[in-house]
Amino acid sequence: MAHDTDQKHGLYFESILQLRDVDKEVIDFTEDEIFRVKLKIAKTVALKNGIDYYLSDNSLTRALGKRLKDKFGGDIKVTSSLWGVKKDREVYRVTVLFRGVPFKKNEIVTYDGEDYKVVSLSKDIFLQAVKHGKKVHIRYHRMNQIRKKVD
């Protein structure tokens, strides 16, 4: 009975939402959304650089990941793995990883040796050079090349 999917058990979960490198605002938003859409939390695990939520519904967890990215920018990765078979159908567990950005809109950052203002955190990161106004866009998987400006 390794895969007991009886939902009466408190530890049942279908998905894991992993938040990494996020601030309190992101965590509060996430918990408000989990409550709002009535996702059940089997458990939470606090980590040094984030938190994992073990949740009851794959599609709601995917949708929450998308809302986090739309609202805060950041990088999202969704993976799924075959968990077992229930009533002759395969059951998958989904993991949604949301990695926040270490800077906010309108902050000054350093990229490629120059100072830039963060113009937008949407599909990509949009920066505008402080000196000459040149605009660049950077994909989230390269955001580690951007450094928050230290005064």
In a few lines, what is going on in this structure?
By secondary structure, the chain is of the alpha+beta class. It has helices at 24-36, 58-72, and strands at 15-20, 41-47, 50-55, 75-86, 89-99, 108-111, 114-121, 125-129, 135-138, 146-148. Strand 7 and strand 8 (125-129) form a beta hairpin.
Description:
With 151 residues, this protein is an alpha+beta fold. It folds into two domains: 85 residues, Alpha-Beta Plaits, CATH 3.30.70; 41 residues, no CATH class. Helix content is 19%, strand content 44%. The protein is elongated, with a radius of gyration of 19 Å. The termini are far apart. The N terminus is likely disordered.
Rg on CA atoms, Å: 19 Å
Total strand segments: 10
Structural category? alpha+beta
Strand content: 35-45%
Question: Going across the major beta sheet, what is the strand order?
Answer: 2-3-1-5-4
